[in-house]
Structure formats: C-alpha cells, structure tokens
Amino acid sequence: MGKRKLISQPTAGLHGELLLPGDKSISHRALLIGSISSGTTVIKHFLHSADCLSTLQAIRDLGITVTEQGNDIVVHGQGLTGLQAPANPLDMGNSGTTTRLIMGLLAGQDFQSVLTGDSSLQKRPMRRVSDPLSTMGADIQTAPAGTLPVKITGQPLHGVHIKLPVASAQVKSALILAALQADRSSTIIEKLPTRDHTEIMLRKFGADVQTAPDHLTITVKPQPELKGQTVDVPGDMSSAAFFLTAATIVPHSDIILRNVNINTTRTGILDALLKMGANIQVTALPSSGEPAADLRVRSADLSPLDLGEKDIPAIIDELPLIALLAACTPGRSTITGAQELRFKETDRIAVIAQELRKLGVSIQELPDGLIIEGQETWRPVDPTLDSHGDHRIGMMMAIAALRSTTALLLRNPEAVAVSYPEFFVDLNSLLTKEKEL
Ligand code: S3P
C-alpha cells in the first residue's frame, strides 16, 4: 500500500505570495526544441518535476549534452539531424507529453528507437499520434492495444495536409515536430484551438510556423535552421490553478501568485472562475514571448457553471478543480464534451466522481463529463482519499480538504512530484493558522 498523508488542516485562510514553478508544457518544449537547434539553449526557471526530468533524460539518451549553470539548464543542441540512436529503450516515466512529442521528433530520424513508460502511461492511447504520423511516411509500431511500448523506425517524411480528429496539443505538436523534418510544407488543421507553446517557441528559434486567423490551421515549412535561444519559462497556470481555487473557496483568503503564464490557450480556469464570480485581479507583466501576469485572489461566493466542448481545451488539466469549485457552490454545475479526461494519467471523470463522493459530494458521471450538485458544507463518508497515482487528483484533493471539518488522509501523495514537487511546502506556506488571525 502507498503512503498516506494527513491533508486536512483547519485554516483561517490563505495569505502571502508565491512564485509558481515553471510551466510544464513550456519546459518540455524548451528541452526538445533546444536539442534539435544549433548552439546552446539556456532554460531559465525550468520545471524540475518528474515529467520534465523524463524529457531531460530522454534527450541525454539521444546523445545531447545537458548541463546546469546555477539554476539554469543548458542544452547543447546538435541541429535537426544531430540526435543519435539510443543504446536502450527510452523511459518516458509517467509523461504523456514526452512520449507524444518525442514520437514526432524521432519519426524522421535516421535510426530506430523504442519508448517505454510506467504502468499508467502504458495504458494511454498512442495511435492518436502514430496514425497521423504514418500519413507522413512514419513507421511506428505500437503494442496491439495501441499503447506503449512503441517502436519507431525513422523514415524520410513527406509534407501533409491533415485534419486532426482529437483536440490535443500533444498530437498537434508531434505533427509539427515531424513536419520540420519533411520534404515539403505541411498544413495541420485542429478540431479546436489547443495550447500553442510549440508554435510560439519554434518561431522564436527561427522556424517558419504560421497560424491562420481561424486559430486552427497551422502551416509548417520544413528544414529550418533552428538557433538555440534563452527561454525564460513563466509560472505554470495549471499549478497556479490549485491556489486560485484554494484562495477562492477558503474564507478570509488574500494571496498573490507571481509571474503566471496567461497564454489564452491556457486561461480557461481564469475565465471559468471569473464567470462563477471569483475575485481575481490580473496585472500583466512585460514579456517578449509567452505572456505572464501577477494574479491577486481573494475569497468569493460563487455561482454554478456549465462548461461545454468548446471550453474544454483551454481548461483540460484544470477540470478536477472545476469539479471541486462546483462541489462548493450551491446549485447544479455541469461539464460536458470532456471525454478526453478519460485518457489522462487516470480516467479523471471516474476518479473525480469516486473521490469527491467520499467527501459527501453529490456528483454524477456522464460519458463525457460530470453533473455536480454543490453544497455549502459536505458530510464526508470516507476519510481516506486517494490520488490514484495522478498528480492533479492528489493536489485537487489536498485543496478540497481545506473545506473539511474532519480529518482526512491522502493515499499516494507523492504523485504530486510529477508536475509540482514542492506543492505541499508551497501550500503550507500560505496557510494561516486559526489562532494567528
Ligand atoms: C499538454 C497537452 C494536453 C495536457 C497535458 C499537456 C502539452 O494533453 O492535458 O497536460 O504539453 O501539450 P492533450 O494533448 O492530450 O490534450
């Protein structure tokens, strides 16, 4: 049995300020794009979490030298054709982003590679990447269930014109990384706009990647000369989201979150919170690439919310928190069009419902979402919660516990290290003891 951690603590509110860890999506991309650029790429405020360290180890196994300079990571890139055949299978750990982006990167390389991962990653679908890549000429074999292990035999790739059936930034990014190595231009059309960090970063490194005004059509010109850059990684909105939620639902809170990425493909949680009536002040900061802001959050009474398919991509990783916010808000809230949640680190629709029910929340599972009947207070029926090894579920439950009047335990709390190793330390630093007020 995994570890258990006491997570409920009576608090008189959250106070103070936090500098959030670097954005996970941007940290992965800086390593991968740095590795295929010429010269050095310096990554500032890199996220040292388990997922990003899987990408770091993978590029080292592909022959790239990565060093540390103070707090910065330095990638000594070898250009588009400079990666080397790995001696052993590449271990993707728990990281879907590493796996899917690297499939696109390796599809056009002149060698064979095998990707493996942990038991959760081994259940996740990979044909959503290998199928579209095969239309470019890629040779990628998955296990019979369409999962890891995956064998990639590098091939010369052709430019394509392709419409993607799932709204997924990982799939889109894999195709963009493959398209850089193709023989002619590619056009990739998304179902709905998803996070565009790959496009933004590639432009910074010198690639010709254009996004049409529809925000759905991306054109990639092949064989660019990518030049190493300095990447200043802003704070991760997906990590900030736990504290945006906590400060909103715990009375008497007032906190400031510094330097958070506010790329609009990621700010669905801000939009949703503001729609529900949250008290959040956004102060934009000067930036030359990805936009960032300081966020001041104070407690607020909320109204219920309905989210549908179009809202989902910009809030995909924050939907566990929307379920929690809805659970604290009297009235019925709904999430639909979110079937992608079933393919995350866990089946998040099932796991959210299972864990919030332990707290006495009335919540109904739909094939593609959840219906939540919110209440001011809950009556827990089972004090032992479980992250199920899923970082975002573990952190959501720790925030939920701040509203509990009874002691709660969290099984497998160490899962938070996948995206936020210092989560419990940062949370504790904001909690004001009841007697301190
Ligand atoms: C990510 C894309 C999203 C997101 C994941 C990170 C990325 O996944 O859920 O946490 O960095 O591209 P999908 O592409 O599966 O939606």
What does it look like?
The chain is of the alpha/beta class. It has two domains: 216 residues, UDP-n-acetylglucosamine1-carboxyvinyl-transferase, Chain (Alpha-beta prism), CATH 3.65.10; 209 residues, Enolpyruvate transferase domain (UDP-n-acetylglucosamine1-carboxyvinyl-transferase, Chain, Alpha-beta prism). 28% of the residues lie in helices and 24% in strands. The protein is built from twelve helices and 23 strands. The strands form six sheets. Strands 2-15-17-16 form a four-stranded mixed β-sheet. A four-stranded mixed β-sheet has the order 4-5-3-14, covered by helices on one side. Strand 8 and strand 9 form a beta hairpin. Helix 3 packs parallel to helix 5 and helix 7 runs parallel beside helix 11. Bound molecules: shikimate-3-phosphate.
In short:
By secondary structure, the protein is an alpha/beta fold. 28% of the residues lie in helices and 24% in strands. It has helices at residues 24-35, 50-61, 96-106, 127-134, 169-179, 197-204, 237-249, 268-276, 319-327, 348-358, 391-400, 423-430; strands at residues 4-6, 15-19, 38-44, 65-69, 72-78, 90-91, 112-116, 139-141, 150-153, 161-163, 186-189, 209-211, 217-220, 230-232, 254-261, 279-285, 292-298, 306-307, 331-335, 362-366, 369-374, 384-386, 409-411.
